[in-house]
Amino acid sequence: xxxxxxxxxxxxxxxxxxxxxxxxxxxxxxxxxxxxxxxxxxxxxxxxxxxxxxxxxxxxxxxxxxxxxxxxxxxxxxxxxxxxxxxxxxxxxxxxxxxxxxxxxxxxxxxxxxxxxxxxxxxxxxxxxxxxxxxxxxxxxxxxxxxxxxxxxxxxxxxxxxxxxxxxxxxxxxxxxxxxxxxxxxxxxxxxxxxxxxxxxxxxxxxxxxxxxxxxxxxxxxxxxxxxxxxxxxxxxxxxxxxxxxxxxxxxxxxxxxxxxxxxxxxxxxxxxxxxxxxxxxxxxxxxxxxxxxxxxxxxxxxxxxxxxxxxxxxxxxxxxxxxxxxxxxxxxxxxxxxxxxxxxxxxxxxxxxxxxxxxxxxxxxxxxxxxxxxxxxxxxxxxxxxxxxxxxxxxxxxxxxxxxxxxxxxxxxxxxxxxxxxxxxxxxxxxxxxxxxxxxxxxxxxxxxxxxxxxxxxxxxxxxxxxxxxxxxxxxxxxxxxxxxxxxxxxxxxxxxxxxxxxxxxxxxxxxxxxxxxxxxxxxxxxxxxxxxxxxxxxxxxxxxxxxxxxxxxxxxxxxxxxxxxxxxxxxxxxxxxxxxxxxxxxxxxxxxxxxxxxxxxxxxxxxxxxxxxxxxxxxx
Amino acid sequence: xxxxxxxxxxxxxxxxxxxxxxxxxxxxxxxxxxxxxxxxxxxxxxxxxxxxxxxxxxxxxxxxxxxxxxxxxxxxxxxxxxxxxxxxxxxxxxxxxxxxxxxxxxxxxxxxxxxxxxxxxxxxxxxxxxxxxxxxxxxxxxxxxxxxxxxxxxxxxxxxxxxxxxxxxxxxxxxxxxxxxxxxxxxxxxxxxxxxxxxxxxxxxxxxxxxxxxxxxxxxxxxxxxxxxxxxxxxxxxxxxxxxxxxxxxxxxxxxxxxxxxxxxxxxxxxxxxxxxxxxxxxxxxxxxxxxxxxxxxxxxxxxxxxxxxxxxxxxxxxxxxxxxxxxxxxxxxxxxxxxxxxxxxxxxxxxxxxxxxxxxxxxxxxxxxxxxxxxxxxxxxxxxxxxxxxxxxxxxxxxxxxxxxxxxxxxxxxxxxxxxxxxxxxxxxxxxxxxxxxxxxxxxxxxxxxxxxxxxxxxxxxxxxxxxxxxxxxxxxxxxxxxxxxxxxxxxxxxxxx
Lengths: 622, 499
Prior knowledge:
Chain A has 26 helices and two strands. With 622 residues, chain A is mostly helical. Chain B has helices at residues 2-6, 13-30, 35-60, 89-108, 116-135, 141-150, 152-162, 167-200, 207-210, 217-234, 243-250, 253-278, 280-307, 311-332, 335-366, 377-380, 382-395, 402-417, 419-425, 428-444, 460-478, 481-484, 488-496; strands at residues 69-76, 81-87. In chain B, a hairpin with a 4-residue loop joins strand 1 and strand 2. In chain B, helix 4 packs antiparallel against helix 5 (116-135).
């Protein structure tokens, strides 16, 4: 089979997106929806069909040349390898299910063509990141997902806040993109190519300082898209978008793009110990920061948003600790269970009559569909890291990797990771209790959910629960399938005594039980939520928005004002106007001379004559 | 010259490019034609010119260096003044852009009701003058100067007669500013001519001859300064830019498209064609200074754009900001950056022209340019809004759309020779996103103002304007190769010809 056919995987969603955007509103609704779902589903099936192409070194395909100037040649090229293949399968698979769910969720939305067009376009852009063979194609996808995220966060644009949230997400992530672009330019200047494989191959020849600088630039780029410290402020506000969007973009795929980028360039990144430490530190600190914020959130989706941030932090920690397979395992299982959680949350919001506030929910276990509870619980168990669920194994692998690094820094990060795991259990069960336990505290509209909003959740919930099988550790008789599949790309091989591994797993289990116990004691029967300075501090994400406002936004606006009013209007314009006025005034004064009286002119003539005469005389004397 | 004299006489395509619009303008004016006739006449003229340029592009756009076409005749032999037009890869792109945008401008000006024949005639004269600027290259600086000035008057009248409320002030300011720059250039030009004549005894205005004038470094700096002042005002480089937001925002829609898409490019084109090759040492030494001005302009204009409340002024400042990047690429002085810069000149012409076109269409529906009075347009005119969003995204440098191709080449090239300049320019990505998304937010999103009535979406004429521009925007973004191809040779030659 021709390898160029691999391009069908990203291009099918693109075609469907373009068709939907151009003609969607003129097509019957069912047609537009079918088009959107089938484009993504076809990509999924094609990925399965082409699975063998990822074996060994993978397969490259070139569609054509994008830019060619002198020695700069950038083709539209993709690379389907062991790292890209599982990611592609996850993206297309999860996206298919979420598209189906979206058909159910958005069935009353009038502007369906824009919605499905953007959603399909997003899948294309995400696949461009995943499959890119060179950094510029990756950058195309990178900016593309940002655009779709912008459009979908602000999808309900009639409310100004929604559109603002979209703009904020775009701008904050673009700050990260600047760093990624800087890394891209630098790498090109160093190697003369943008091909990821070539760059990785040549990375060993760079000096340590350059490697560290490049790693930090890449890290900052990744932080923007993945909502890590310090570029994390946009994600919680991004929840203004419809729930299917949050499930797809802000949980399963786009926010993990940063992790994927670092995994893609792992051969380069891993050469810099300082850079790796920075990655791990950012990850661990974000995991803790977001977990504390999640404790106090009141909107169901904001809890999940902070939990996403926190879990992606674990993935960064994994990369920093040197295990790509650990990061990818957590990325994949997280995608499954978090998508399930978000879609379940969408159902909850739907049943609660568009109520977001978990303090005004409750009682959904008895009043709502039981099915919803089980799915939500499955997702929550994974998120909390309850033993034997997918989330348990993948998170445990990451903490083990950090622990076995052995340096004081990594031990500290491991401790932070454990603390975050405890908090994760607390806020997850808090969420479950507040939504499902007790009696309803607000208006409920218990009714049957549409079929399409119910069954796409099951596969995801089951995949999340069983996600441990992906990379089951040898400790419990697993084969570490993902690590083997990734082969040389998997990063460090973890070696630890079995006793240590059991002890760590036991410790993690103990923390989950502790967290669950606390949540049960505090929230099983609703006694009102704390409202004090600490909880408000956490609710507002440690005041990060206010800080950014004071440090960045306001100075920016102030300088803008200075440039516009102080400089252009006052300085340049005024000085020019002054010049013009002087010219006019000069003319006015000169006009005074042309009086029309002979005597004035005569006087002028005489004076002039005398001056010239004097000048001649002076010249003669000399 | 001798080789040209013996060459086979060829069809005077280049004269045709200048002559066609001029003939159209005269036809509009001479007989008392009706408004409708003039519109169609102008459209036919611009389309014919476009056809000629497209034909030249298809047949000559393969990237060889040197002149692709050259027409030469004696004009005023006594002063060594000849009539010489010549076309190379760079001017080829500019000619194509001129022809394309003028067709768009005529279509945009279609609803104009006041003194249509004069309006169309001025628009066509402007086209003719622009063609002259881009073609009068090799032989005569005189012809170049003539065309340079010939563009000024039609534009001043377009702004002064058909402009918006503040048109008088804007027109006067535009006129004075440009004239001041032009005078500096004229003096420098005459000085150079006299110096050359004194050295060789054979007066000539030919670029190739004048480039051989022996100059002291001080002389070079002075003359270079004279030329650059004219070009910097036209480009415009900060701090010579304050005429531009006024002129752009007060001029009629077709004029704005013309100004931003083409007139501003003549300043940059002048640097590439005349200022750099005539004064190589001065150029070489002032590159860091030029880069500093470019960066200053990039951010200063972006900050200004962020603060404006008038849509057209936002776009005007965004234009200055983008041109900062173009100049930075030129200052970086390598082939990749130069090709990026010239490509960016073209894409910027298309994208910003398109943005002004959309704004004109919106203005005819809403009657306002104030950002505060707009909002929620997506609900009212979705198609028009979608076009606006597309062009705004292209303008903020989204990969896959027009501007990105040029921008990334500028940055890749600049980073190679001057990493620091490229790094300093990078935050511009965020700045552009900041002011453009603020614009999009204010126009398209949010609730619609209560007072607004129903609005019609696109008319057939508007579709005809926007579709080609949108197609070009995507094409230039995904497959810029045909537009980069003609540049390879001339850019190499331009860079190689300097120390």
